Amino acid sequence: MPKISSTRRIPRLAAAIALCLALSGLCSLALPALASASTTQIAIFEDGQELNSPQAAQTTLLRMRELGATTVREFVSWAHTTVNPLSANAPSNFNGADPNAYPNSNWATLDAVVRDAQQYGMTLDFTVGGGAPVWAEGSGAPPGPGRTDLNYAWKPNANDYGQFVHAVGERYNGSFRPHGVGSPLPVVHFWSIWNEANFGEDLGPQAIAGSSVSVAPNMYRGLLNAGWSALHATGHGNDTILIGEYAARGIAGGPTKHAPQGYPGNYGQTKPLIFIRTLYCVNNSYQVLRGSIAGAEGCPTNAAGSRKFRAQNPALFNASGVGDHPYPLNLSPVSDGRSDPNFAAFPDLGNLALVLDRTQKVYGSAKKFPIYNDEYGYITDPPNVSAVPGGGHYVSPATAAYYLNWAEYLSYKNPRIKSYMQFLLNDPPSVKGQGLFASGLLTASGAQKQTFSAYRLPLYMPVTAFKRGQNVEVWGDVRPAGFMTSDTHAAQEVQIQLQSGSRGAFKTINTVKISSREGYFDIGMKFPSSGTVRLTWTYPRTDSLLPTGAPGATVYSRHVVVKVR
Predict the structure, then answer these.
(1) CB-based burial of residue 151 (10 Å sphere; 0-12 exposed, 13-18 middle, 19+ buried)?
(2) pTM to 2 decimal places
(3) How far apart are CA 487 and CA 467, in angstroms?
(4) DSSP, residue by residue, 99-140
(5) Any idea what the Cα angle at residue 130 is, between residues 127 and 132, rounded to 5°?
(6) How far apart (Å, rounded) are the C-alpha atoms in residues 511 and 475?
(7) Contact 10/48 with Cβ under 8 angstroms?
(8) Are the C-beta atoms of residues 344 and 273 closer than 8 Å to each other?
(9) Virtual CA dihedral for 12, 17, 20, 23, nearest 10 degrees?
């Protein structure tokens, strides 16, 4: 999604608009074997506004840790890190591959986040993306923000981008010492190459000739190859390296009076599954492209060229996984009223997996890419009271809490999905006349929304009305448990409590030991009566990194009403 400022990376509503996953029997309500579930999926968190603020970054990381996020996605902007980004002329005598060629002040906040994350036992996922400095862009950009807004990238030069990735990779390879600093910076082992290449503001133009020729996939191949080579050259060849980072939706159509370039045109979104097929130089029937259309889209035009395609594009076949940003907007994780066979929203992740597999198969690869959900969340009303473009209104915080837990349960059940993600800790401040991307767990003033508790202690029951004596599934997660199971802390336990009827005290009816770092449990149990179910867990008193008030505090999940008949 597009960046709003140099210190803030928040999706715009217009970009966001443009499951029963059909894998592994995901829709079944029967208790599945744990071996088939994604029991080790990682919890990723992102809030670029807070982490790019020197005043807020440390506090934000500790709050994310308190909530149990083990991995933090950090956007590393090429344009905002480099030298003279608004100049049309490349800096003289500038070696973009050398981290020392950049002002130390441009690295300062990032260096601090890397050091703090190491101290707190958290993993960083570096998304190295645009916008591009003007001096590294191609010609022909239309008038408008694309020439002045550093969050845009128009025909970015892949070689220049590769040099920047080299500088970042070298700086964070575990042995680099900034000038005047005695100890080397910590190593980063998790990377994403570029961001939302199917979105025109991140990579434009998307399509030319009245949107009949898709050109962004060819540019992205160049960026991938440059980034891949740079990471391998700087010692990160065995790291987790993701490709894709796709925006979930898009639009297509020929020129009109109001859109002379058609859609996606210069700055629109290409539907992600169309983008993927073009990226791999195949058509909708998974036949390799040939002839003039192949040449126009930067693809091999003959069989000999196709035989070299796999070797010439190693990231497309050897990456660790594919990132996707499957926002379902205001809809449930299994029902997307704006569904399209070429979308990659949460209900479409099964189809995304199939398309990835089929494009690999064309070139003789049996690779089955893990899918990383690494940008996700629900905008809530309040505070955003505007209508959703395309229909409907944003969900209440209570509904968002339910949907978040439901989505994570579905992710857990599918071994193909390797991460669950929360985008934004804090809602951004309201700006008059603009939609508010209010997907945070906290309001702009710092008050907890219902999603806060739902994220910290997820709880989901696929069946909530059942017969007395029936064994039913209770799934949940003590997300912070991974930070609390070191030698100085006892093994963690979570209590499942029931309030019988509609009033009275909650009583513990089951205690579950947490055996994994990720904190998940998935059990079958019987309920003595109808009522309200919740999880309860107490933070250890001995964790020195917990914020004031958290040590020894007892916390609760959202409530689930069950009916025993």
Answers:
(1) buried
(2) 0.93
(3) 43
(4) GGGS-HHHHHHHHHHHHHHHHTT-EEEEEEE----GGGS-S-
(5) 150
(6) 13
(7) yes
(8) yes
(9) -80
Q: pLDDT tens, 179-207? A: 888 899 999 999 999 999 999 999 999 99
**Whole-angstrom Cα distance, residue 248 to residue 423?**
15
Q: Report, in angstroms and rounded to the nearest whole number, the Rg of the chain calculated over CA atoms.
A: 24
Write the pLDDT tens digit of every residue in 463-516: 999 999 999 999 999 999 888 755 455 678 999 999 998 889 999 999 999 987
Beta bridge partners of 498: 507, 533
Q: Is the pLDDT of residue 369 over 60?
A: yes
Pick the closest to residue 274 from 293, 249, 292, 301 (CA basis). Answer: 249
- Angle, vertex CA 55, rays to CA 54 and CA 56, nearest 5: 95
User: DSSP label at 347?
Assistant: G
Query: Around Cβ 119, how many Cβ atoms within 10 Å?
Result: 12
DSSP letter string, 171-209 = HTSS----TT-SSPPPP--EEEESS-TTBTTTSB-SEET
How far apart CA 556 and CA 150 sit, in angstroms, is 43
495 to 95, 510, 543, 549: CA distances (angstroms): 57, 6, 21, 21
Q: How far apart, in Å, are the Cα atoms of 118 and each of 121, 161, 189, 331?
A: 5, 27, 12, 37
Integer Cα distance of 278 and 288 in angstroms: 10
Crossing angle for the helix pair 272-279 and 349-362, nearest 10 degrees? 10
Strand-pair category, 321-325 with 240-247 = parallel
- The answer to whether 346 and 22 are in contact (CB under 8 A) is no
Task: Report how far residue 278's alpha carbon sits from residue 291's, in angstroms, rounded to the nearest whole number.
Answer: 14
Q: What pLDDT score does 1 carry?
A: 41
Question: How far is the CA of 349 from the CAs of 9, 35, 272, in angstroms?
Answer: 24, 21, 11
List all residues 6 or more positions away from 142 whose beta carbon is below 8 Å from its beta carbon.
266
Please answer whether residues 281 and 300 qualify as being in contact, where contact means their C-beta atoms are separated by less than 8 angstroms: yes
Amino acid at 10: I
DSSP string, 212-247: TEE-HHHHHHHHHHHHHHHHHHTT-TTSEEEEEEEE
Rounded to the nearest angstrom, the gap between the alpha carbon of residue 328 and the centroid of all alpha carbons in its chain is: 13
Please write the tens of the pLDDT for every residue from 268-294.
999 999 999 999 999 999 999 999 999
Helix spans in 345-449 (H): 349-362, 397-413
**Neighbouring C-beta atoms of residue 373, cutoff 10 Å:** 22
Residue environment code for 76-108, b if the CB has 16+ CB neighbours within 10 A, otherwise e: bbbbbbbeebeeeebeeebebbebeebeeeebe
Half-sphere exposure of 51 (CA within 13 A, CB side): 29
List beta partners, residue 282.
288
Measure the N-to-C terminal CA separation of the chain; round to a whole number of Å. 47
Residue 526 CA: distances (Å) to CA of 195, 337, 469, 530, 564: 46, 35, 6, 11, 10
Distance CA 538, CA 228 (A): 44
- Which residue type, as a one-letter code, is found at position 461? M
Phi, psi of 456 (to 5 degrees): -70, -45
- Look up residue 36 and give its DSSP letter: G
